[in-house]
Please model this.
Amino acid sequence: MDRPLFTARLQQKLMLSAPAECYHLEFSIDELSHFDFAPGQFVSCVAVDERGKSQTRAYSVASAPRANQFDLCVNRVEGGFFSNLLCDLEPGQTIPFHGPHGLFTLRQPLTDAIFIATGTGIAPLRGFVEWLFPESGDDRSQGRTIWLVYGTRHETEIYYQKYFQKVAAERHNFHYLSTLSRPHEGWEGLRGYVQQHVGEIVTARANQNHSAPVITVAEPAGFDVHAYICGLNDMVSANRSKLTELGWQRKQIIFERYD
Model:
């Protein structure tokens, strides 16, 4: 079935990391005054490659809904047609897309949550945080405790760090942890892989509640905490295994893989 195509026009381009050649791209949509989507969903961009073949690539939206705009977080990939096309866009240029699509969205009723990401997998989780804790307007977190555990190799690849630190400083129920798998000698933050720190959060939470964080009759959805994981397959699998070992059920673990 043919999907309607819209025109995304680049409004602003910010470099998040020079070594990784990662960009934050802000688009507006020519045909729409409002673009309605659920935080965590993705858009599918369309372009014709050098062989004349139409290519489509999905990118998670890195923002909460605002008027007719959306943001993407894209890093250059050697030999990658679409990622390089987007990284080379300049303000004013356009790309066709369709969407929104996807089921990687916050479950209702809202519960405590652990957001887990590596690399550009941070994109949909940034959308979650923007929606839950808007700069203007009502707080939508309902007082739920939210953790964001973000892992990458090097300090230069910690995307949106100042934004998440600002939210954590202003909102008592939002906790931001960044960890490096290949830290330099002067790095004073967390080290290791995300699943290690996720395990520590879950264990501490269970001890604080004096019970395993799996089922509570008081919650209409049956759970009082969920995990939302986005990144490459190995990371997603490692965190799913860690949470399962700690007694979590499959429906508590929502994930999206990039490979």
The longest strand covers residues 6-17. The chain has two domains: 6-101, 112-257. Residues 211-221 have pLDDT under 50 and may be disordered.
